[in-house]
Amino acid sequence: MRIVVNDNDGIRLDKYISLNTNFSRELVGKMIENGFILVDDKLQKGSYKVKNGNEIEIDESFKIDTEIKPVKMDLDIVYEDDDIMVVNKPSGLVVHPGNGNYNNTLVNGLIYYTKNLSNIGGDARVGIVHRIDKDTSGLMLIAKTNKAHEILAEGFKNHDIKRTYYALLVGVLPYDNATIDAPIKRDPNNFNKMGVFEGGKKAITNLKVIKRYKKYTLVKLNLETGRTHQIRAHMEYIGFPIYNDPVYNKNAASEFGQFLHSKEIDFIHPITGEEMHFECNLPKEFQDFLDTLE
User: Fold this and answer.
1) Range of 15's domain?
2) The whole model's pTM is what?
3) Which one from 14, 83, 133, 135 is the annotated catalytic residue?
C-alpha cells in the first residue's frame, strides 16, 4: 500500500497512518518498529512528523506473531570485526524479510551466523544499514553494534561512503564519461519502477566506460545520491538499460537478474577511524557472459 501525504502536514507518522488506513495505532507502531513502513524509502520513527509530499510505503504482509527465523546460509564474508561486517551478497537474495518472504533473506542468514547485530532498524532489519536490490549482487556493510550503525548511517546520509558498481549496458555508449543528473520518483504508472520525472528527488550518477563490446558496454558507476533503483532508472533514462534487467529492460531476462554488481566500497571504520577498502570479483554468471563477448 502506498499513501502520498497531501494534508495533515505535521501529524505524527503513526497517527497519520492509523487515520488513513484500517490499521490500529498499536499495530502501526509494531509495523514501524519492525521496518514494514518506509517514508520516502527510509525508516522513520512513529514520532516522525509527516510532510506534504511524503510517500509512505506500507508492507501489509506484516503479522504480529511474525518471528524472523535463523537460516543456515553460506555467507560470503569479506571482512569482519567486533563492530562491522562486509558481505558479498549474491544475486537473487533479498536483503530483509517482507512481502511474504520471511525465511530466505540475508537477515535470516545473518541471525543464524551471529547474535551480535545492531537492532536500530527493528527485528526485520537487524544489522542492515543500507540495501541493494534482490537481483543486484555485491558488497554490503553490516553493523554489529548500534554505535557502528549510527555512524555508518550518518556516513551514507552525508555521502561519505563510496560504492563503486559495475554494470553491463545494452548498446554501445558513444562517450567515455558521463554524469546523469536527473530527478527520480516512483513511476505513477508502474509501482515496481522508479523513473526520471519532474518533481522527483535529486539523483546524480557518475559513469565511466571500462570496455566496449559489439553490442554492449561495461561501465563503472559511482553514486552521489542513493535513490531507490537509481542506477537502473538512470541507465534506462539515457537509453542504455542494464542487460538482463527484468524491470527496466524490455528484453526477456533470465532468472539471474540485472548485470549490476556492487564491486568496491570505501569508508572510514566507524570505531577505529581506519580507512577501509574492499572489492570482490564479478559473479560467475556475469563474468562468464563477458567472456563470451570477447
Assistant:
1) 2-58
2) 0.79
3) 133
